[in-house]
Every structure is written in C-alpha cells, then in structure tokens.
C-alpha cells in the first residue's frame, strides 16, 4: 500500500519500504497535489508554483518527466502505458488519487475529527498517536514556498487543536499530571494563545497549585497587554475569578469523565394547579426507594393530566438525577397505527446515550441488557408516557439503584404493580376549587372575579378535566372582549362526548371541543377533521398540505390556528400530533360532516403522499434499482422531494411509523395496489439500511397473501423474491432457498424472463453464499442457474436491471471457472469486467462487493499480493458499509499472516474488530468468529 508523508519532509513508502521521490522540485510536485486534497491542479499552475513564476524554457517537458518518474515510483505494478490509478490526468491537470488513509495529513485530519466524537478514554490514545506522526515542519524544505504556506498554516493550527484536545482528554480521564506537563509545553510553544494559557492554568488548579495557576494567568495577561494592548479573553477572566472564589464546579465540569447526559424532558406547562397530594406522594416514594429503582405508574382517564403531573415532578426533581433524563411518548393509546414496540424505544434510548445507530443490538433482550449496563451506577430519570400495557414497558426499566421511572397510562398495569412492585398513583379530575384556580391563573383574576357565576358554570361544564379547561382558557385569553357569561352559555348548549365519559366527570368534553372547533376558520376546521383520517401517529406540514391540496405555507397557517386553540400539538418543530381524545372527536366530526366519498379521497391523498415521497427517497438510496410504474398521485398531492442520500435516509427515519400505518390502511382496505407498492418502496430501507428484517417479513407476508387473493401474478413473483432475499439477509438459508425455488416456478409459468433471472440468481447466491469462496460442489451446483440467467439476460432490453443481473450472473460463472483446469485467470478477468461494468453505472457498493470476491479468489489461489490490492480497493469503494469493510479487513489479516507480517496482521485485525464492535447482524458475528480463529 502506498503511503505519502508531508507532516515533515515529503516522502513516501510502499508496504513500509521507502521509495525515492526524486529531487526537490519532484518532491514539491507531490506536495502540491497533497495540498490540493485530491482535486486536479492544472499544468499551468504546477509550472507557476514549482518554479516560483520563473519557469525554464521547456517547463512542460520537465513537468511531464516528473509525472513519468513519479508514476514509475508510486505505481510500480502498472503495466507499460497502462492507465494510471494514483497520479492521474484530469482535464488539463493532474491529481493524486488516494484514499484518505494513504496520506498522513489527510489521515491526521480525519482522525482528529473522529477523536472529537469519542469519549475521552478513547480519544486520548488516538490523539497522542496522531501527534506522533509529525516529523518536522509541514512539507519539509518546501514549507515556505507560496503554494505551501496556507495549507501548512492550516495543518499547524489543526496540530495545536489536537494538542489541546489531548490535554482536555487527559483531564477527563484524571491524568492531571500528564495534562499539566503537556499544557506547559504548549504554553512555551504558543505563549500568546489563550486556550494554551487556559489549559495550563486549569491543569495547575487540578493538581492543587492554585497560586501557580493564578500566576500563569497573570503572566499571560501582561504578555497580551504588552504585545497587543488588549485584555485577556473572557474565558481566562472567568477562570481566574473561579479560582479566587474557589468555585470548584467549574473545575469539576472540565475534569469529570465524559458522559452523555440526555436532557429530554419536554417543556412543562406554564400554569399548573393542584396535584399537591400526588406530587408529595411521588416525592415520598422516591425517598423510600433510595436503595432501589423507583417505578411509579400514574393512571387515569385521557386528558386528566397524567403527563403534566409526571413532567411537573420531573422538572422539580431533575437535579436529583444528574446523569440525565429520558422521555418517550409510547403511543399506547394512539387511535391510528401501533404502539411503539420496546425494540424501537430501546434503540432510541441507546442512541441518546451515545450508541451508534448501526451498533445497536438486534434483539430486545440484548438491547435491554445494554441499556442496563450503560445506566449502571448512574442516577437517571425515565418518563415512559402513554403506555399501552406492562409488556410495552417491562424491558425499558433500568436495574440501577438511584434511578426513577415514571409511567403514565390509562390502564392500571396490574402486572407491573405485581411483578415489579410498581407504585400506582391514581389521578382523578380536578375538584371545583382547583378548576377555578386554574382558570384564574390562565385568564386573569380580574376576569374570573368579575363573573364568578360564569366561572362556576364553565368549571361545571368542563367537569374538572384539565384538557377541557385548557381549551376553554385558550379561547378566553385570545378573545378578551368575550364575556365569560356568553362563553358559559355556549358551553351549556353543547352535547357531550359520550364515547369518552368517565366516572367523576359530570359533563363530557365534547361540548368544549365543539365550541373551540366552531370558532375555527372553515379551512382550518376542515383540516382538523381530515387530519383525523391521516393514518400515522403524527404529521408534517407537507403531509397535511397533501390532504388539502393547498400550499404548504397556507396549511402551516391553518395548523397554527389548531395549535393556538389547543386542538393539536406541535410536539417537534414542524411535526404535529393529536391528543387521543381530540383525534377521536375530529374523527367523529369527519364522519358527521363529510360524506364517504370525501373521506375516502382524503385517505387516498394521504396514501399517495407517502407512497410517492417514499418512491422519491428510495430512488436516491438505490438509483440502480429497476423502476416500477406507479399511478400518478391525486390532484393537489405534493410529495416530498429529497435532494441527497442523507436526506432520503432521514426522511425514512422520520416517517417510518407513518409508512407502517399507511401500509396497515392498505391491508385493511384490501387495496393491493397501495400495499404492494409501499412494500416495494420501503424494501431497501427496511432490509439494507436499517435491518428491520422481522418487520419486513411480516408485511411482505401480508402483502403476498393479498396478491394471491387478487391473483396478481407479477406482484406474487415480486413479493416472493423479496421474501427470499429477506430470509437470506437474516441467514435463514433453507427458507430463502424455498422462496427462490418458488420464484423460479412462478416466473417460468408466467413467462416473466426478468423475474426468472432474479430467481435463478437468487438461488445461485444461496448455494454459493455471499462474499465467500464456494467449494467446487457449490460452484458447480450454482453454475446452471447462473448460466441460464446469463443467457436470458442477453435477450432482454439493455437497462440497469439487465446490467446488474448480468454482472451477478457473471460472478457465479467466475466461481465456476475458478474450479476448472487453468480457470483462475478466466475468473479474474470476469471479476474485473464486473467491477468495470458496475462502476460505469455508478454502483460503487456492488463494485466493492465484487472486488471483495476477487480478493477471496486471489487469496484462495495463493496470489496474496493481488488479493491485498483487491481488498484495499474494496475498502476504497465500500464507503460506510460496515460488512464489506469488515470482510475486506479480515481478508487482509489472513493475507499478511501468510506473508508473515505480524504487525500488519494485528493492525488489520484491530481495525476489523473496531468495525464489528457492537454490531449483531449474523454476518458480522460470522466475521468475528473468523477473526477469533485467526488469533488462535
């Protein structure tokens, strides 16, 4: 592997052996390309920079000689006149085409960014290691050349930042003496740098040398004043005052070990009345549970204020839980969609505590165990809001003494009380006095005192339900000219919300909701009704706009009306959610005001919005995928259009629960078209990007049953193949093979040649295994299927689908050829053809997988050096796909073991284990087992 160094004299080596970069100008040529960070540098600029604006008469000839010499040195295996892969020609200039980890300066910057995201105990050794890479001035003898000055200065600043971060990390891991020595060296090197002085003073304070710390700050203050005539930076003055006043909390904040302290408590209500007894009860329970985990279940009817009570107590006592507070709405009684499964909640909690998305374990027990491990020894508060039953929350309860869990639910959760000794806290409606106090605080004492009879009437109509009181109060304060008597009269004339009557509530909240609803603008009122028909748990402005056909800015105004009237809640910026009772009321209104055709049209517009948005997003995530025909959306539907792959992934993450709810609507309505197309649009996200494989299988089986019911042959085959692939992804090979065999049978019967090639290739893949070396028996068993698929492909129209299938088929043929006499080179050529083909259609991940197979082939054939090249190319092409990275790194481990290079073996083994760490996909576990075997 080529490695270029510029953090000191410009030099290079290949596989650890130094190479001769030639004389000064030729070395400077390399430095200029490194400074360009992979961008092309024109020949004219190169000539200008190399000869400082005074080029010799035949400078272009000299430049071409430099290129020729350097290519010979940097690419020793390149065939004569073959295409260059390292020092490449682009347009009218040249570029250095190398991965980030092949240039010390690039790798330094990458590692420094990585260190910023690591906890101190992991960041410090990494920072110390990369600082050792510096062997002198950047670009060595060329440091002062005009082309080098800006980049060298930038890298010097990054080096200072790395030194500062290393000192900060040393403080965090309580290595105060080392931090002090490093900070003092930094001050000697950079006496006027404010952060260097701050760290020096801080480290002296940490080791108990307060007077020396103050002296360091004084010396810096005088030096800055003498040099610039300025006062020291504010941070230094703050530190000096903290030392003088012995405000050690500032020192502790800088020296405590890194820990993510989530602070997820939503904003508590500005007006909170009553509940003194319940607050005192929770406080008493917390004190009595000091040696264990407090689990309290706040129960009561919808709208009675369970969440408000939990949040009030949590905010009052959050200082008692200094390690963080976690909050989740479990959607247990949401009228549409399903409650959040424990697996999803655990994933969110673990990510909030710093676990990487793809490092979250697969199973619920493993996620729960990891959560308990991360919380162990910490004092944290959990708010589990709106739970459906005990099963939904059982795995979310930590085991660390000193933690507290507040659960709100309409159900009693008796199982939790019995098995986990949870403490029930029953919440009833307000008494009249508390209702009166609430209104007085919301609308003003002057207004309530002036009309006491009206206040009593309003309180009676609301029946002590806090949600009802909040809606009425919002209307009163936004209409200061309305008398309370008039408002009370309107409320008395309304009918009750019978479906949500409850003991202790003398009047249902429907009258309150209807009164608020009647005062909405007509368009906002229609939106309120139609949002109840939206399938998912929450909606963004774009989805709401598609329901109405209006412009998004207009719909946002209508949504604001609903928020102001307390008819809907903006629980996240731009995301809106009903309270359960209000959604039920809105649904009743839709049933009463809109005919069946209108309601069906609203539902269809919602499905169209999510379907076409998902199609747009999945096209960015996997542009090489074959397209399907989707009927145009209803007029006025405006799907969301994402511009980048990252935006597409974020959209799926945000809308996933809504997409599942939309699929459920299609399933319930027996609407095959929507059901099948939703599964197609979501397949890549749920299977490959987020590995929600169990959920994927569940919905695919439902969709297949629907396709069979409707006798839609095309979708039957499509869904069958999707199921086969999903079972393969979870390593259930027997099930996968059975589904692929069924796909072959169905495709032959229907005459669908494209699906037949996919079925044949899928079965060949099950036989051969993915990214592995098949033995002769497997390769020969898979070969007839691959050969048939290849022959069929050649008769199909030329498009990306055919190109991909041909590439896959040729790969299986290559493995077959590799087991034939003298077939090794034929197999190598086939794999090379596949890589070139896939890169032509910009399918880099597919090319990475093929390069990995080429590495396995070369390694198996004893061509170790060729295998190393292939594995490195896999790493270059694989991007952030961890399984391909881990496979390639593991291959390098075995290659260097064969070469007897123990240092390289250990380097790549550590790198592979770092990729695999905390990932529990079956394929990753297989790679881990391989690595462990290599260590033995």
TrEMBL record:
Domain OmpR/PhoB-type: 1-98
Stored Pfam families: BTAD (PF03704)
Gene3D superfamilies linked to this entry: P-loop containing nucleotide triphosphate hydrolases (3.40.50.300), Tetratricopeptide repeat domain (1.25.40.10), Winged helix-like DNA-binding domain superfamily/Winged helix DNA-binding domain (1.10.10.10)
Matching InterPro entries: AfsR-DnrI-RedD_regulator (IPR051677), BTAD (IPR005158), OmpR/PhoB-type_DNA-bd (IPR001867), P-loop_NTPase (IPR027417), Sig_transdc_resp-reg_C-effctor (IPR016032), TPR-like_helical_dom_sf (IPR011990), WH-like_DNA-bd_sf (IPR036388)
SMART domains reported in the protein's UniProt record: BTAD, Trans_reg_C
CDD domains, A to Z: BTAD
Domain of life: Bacteria
Similarity comment: Belongs to the AfsR/DnrI/RedD regulatory family.
Protein name as annotated: BTAD domain-containing putative transcriptional regulator
Natural source organism: Actinoplanes sichuanensis
């Amino acid at each position: 592997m080529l490695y270029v160094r510029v953090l000191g004299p410009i030099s290079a080596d290949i596989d650890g052996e130094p190479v001769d970069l030639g004389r000064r100008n030729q070395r400077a040529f390399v430095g200029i390309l490194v400074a360009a960070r992979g961008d092309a540098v024109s020949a004219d600029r190169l000539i200008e920079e190399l000869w400082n604006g005074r080029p010799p008469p035949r400078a272009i000839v000299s430049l071409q000689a430099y290129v020729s010499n350097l290519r010979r040195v940097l690419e020793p295996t390149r065939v004569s006149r073959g295409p260059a892969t390292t020092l490449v020609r682009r347009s009218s200039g040249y570029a250095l085409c190398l991965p980030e980890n092949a240039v010390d300066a690039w790798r330094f910057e990458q590692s420094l960014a990585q260190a910023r995201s690591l906890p101190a105990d992991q960041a410090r050794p990494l920072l110390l290691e990369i600082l050792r890479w510096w062997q002198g001035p950047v670009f060595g003898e060329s440091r002062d050349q005009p082309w080098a000055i800006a980049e060298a200065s930038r890298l010097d600043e990054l080096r200072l930042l790395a030194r500062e971060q290393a000192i900060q990390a040393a403080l965090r891991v309580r290595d105060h003496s080392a931090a002090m020595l490093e900070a003092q060296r930094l001050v000697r090197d950079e006496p006027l740098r404010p952060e260097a002085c701050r760290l020096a003073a801080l480290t002296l304070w940490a080791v108990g040398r307060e007077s020396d710390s103050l002296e360091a700050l004084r010396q810096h203050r005088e030096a800055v004043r003498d040099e610039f005539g300025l006062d020291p930076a504010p941070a230094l003055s703050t530190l000096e005052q903290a030392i003088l006043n012995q405000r050690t909390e500032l020192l502790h904040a800088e020296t405590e070990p890194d820990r993510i302290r989530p602070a997820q408590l939503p904003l508590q209500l500005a007006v909170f009345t009553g509940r003194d007894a319940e607050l005192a009860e929770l406080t008493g329970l917390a004190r009595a549970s000091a040696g264990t985990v407090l689990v309290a279940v706040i129960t009561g009817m919808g709208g009675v204020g369970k969440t408000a009570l939990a949040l009030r107590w949590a905010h009052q006592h959050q200082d008692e839980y200094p390690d963080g507070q976690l909050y989740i709405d479990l959607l247990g009684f949401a009228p549409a969609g399903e409650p959040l499964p424990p697996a999803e909640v655990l994933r969110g909690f673990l990510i909030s505590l710093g676990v990487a998305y793809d490092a979250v374990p697969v199973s619920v027990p493993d996620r729960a165990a990891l959560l308990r491990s991360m919380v162990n020894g910490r004092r944290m508060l959990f708010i589990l809001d709106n739970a459906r039953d005990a099963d939904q929350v059982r795995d979310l309860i930590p085991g660390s003494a000193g933690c507290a869990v507040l659960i709100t639910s309409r159900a009693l959760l008796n199982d939790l009380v019995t098995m986990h000794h949870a403490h029930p806290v029953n919440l009833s409606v307000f008494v009249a006095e508390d209702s009166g106090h609430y209104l007085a605080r919301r609308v003003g004492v002057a207004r309530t005192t002036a009309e006491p009879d009206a206040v009593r009437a309003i309180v009676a109509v609301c029946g002590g339900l806090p949600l009802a009181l909040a809606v009425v109060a919002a209307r009163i304060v936004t209409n200061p000219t309305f008398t309370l008597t008039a408002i009370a009269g309107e409320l008395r004339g309304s009918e009750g919300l019978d479906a949500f009557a409850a003991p202790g509530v003398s009047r249902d909240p429907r009258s309150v909701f209807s009164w608020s609803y009647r005062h909405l603008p007509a368009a906002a009122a229609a939106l309120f009704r139609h949002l109840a028909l939206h399938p998912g748990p929450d909606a963004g402005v774009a989805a709401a706009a598609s329901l109405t056909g209006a412009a998004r800015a207009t719909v946002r105004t209508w949504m604001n009306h609903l928020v102001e009237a307390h008819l809907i809640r903006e629980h996240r910026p731009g995301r809106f959610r009903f309270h359960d009772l209000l959604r039920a009321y809105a649904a009743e209104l839709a049933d009463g005001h809109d005919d069946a055709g209108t309601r069906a049209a609203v539902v269809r517009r919602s499905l169209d919005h999510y379907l076409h948005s998902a199609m747009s997003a999945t096209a960015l995530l996997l542009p090489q995928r074959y397209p399907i025909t989707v009927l145009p959306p209803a007029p006025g539907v405006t799907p969301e259009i994402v511009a980048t792959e990252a935006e597409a992934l974020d959209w799926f993450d945000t809308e996933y629960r809504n997409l599942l709810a939309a699929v459920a609507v299609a399933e319930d309505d027996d609407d095959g078209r929507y059901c099948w197309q939703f599964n197609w649009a979501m397949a890549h996200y749920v299977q490959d990007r987020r590995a929600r494989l169990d959920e994927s299988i569940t919905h695919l089986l439902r969709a297949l049953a629907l396709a069979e019911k409707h006798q839609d042959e095309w979708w039957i085959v499509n869904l069958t193949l999707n199921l086969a692939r999903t079972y393969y992804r979870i390593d259930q090979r027997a099930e996968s093979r059975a589904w692929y065999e069924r796909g072959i049978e169905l495709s032959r019967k229907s005459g669908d040649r494209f699906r037949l090639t996919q079925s044949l290739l899928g079965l060949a893949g099950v036989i051969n295994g993915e990214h592995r070396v098949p033995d002769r028996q497997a390769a020969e068993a898979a070969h007839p299927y691959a050969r048939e698929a290849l022959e069929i492909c050649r008769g199909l129209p030329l498009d990306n689908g055919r190109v991909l299938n041909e590439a896959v088929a040729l790969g299986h043929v290559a493995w077959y050829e590799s087991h034939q006499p003298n077939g090794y080179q034929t197999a190598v050529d086939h794999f090379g053809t596949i890589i070139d083909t896939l890169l032509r259609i910009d399918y880099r991940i597919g090319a990475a997988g093929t390069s990995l197979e080429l590495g396995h082939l070369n390694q198996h054939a004893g061509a170790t050096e060729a295998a190393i090249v292939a594995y490195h190319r896999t790493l270059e092409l694989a991007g952030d796909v961890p399984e391909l990275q881990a496979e390639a790194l593991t291959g390098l481990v075995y290659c260097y073991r064969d070469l007897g290079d123990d240092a390289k073996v250990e380097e790549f083994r550590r790198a592979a284990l770092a990729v695999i760490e905390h990932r529990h996909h079956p394929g990753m576990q297989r790679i881990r087992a391989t690595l462990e075997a290599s260590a033995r």
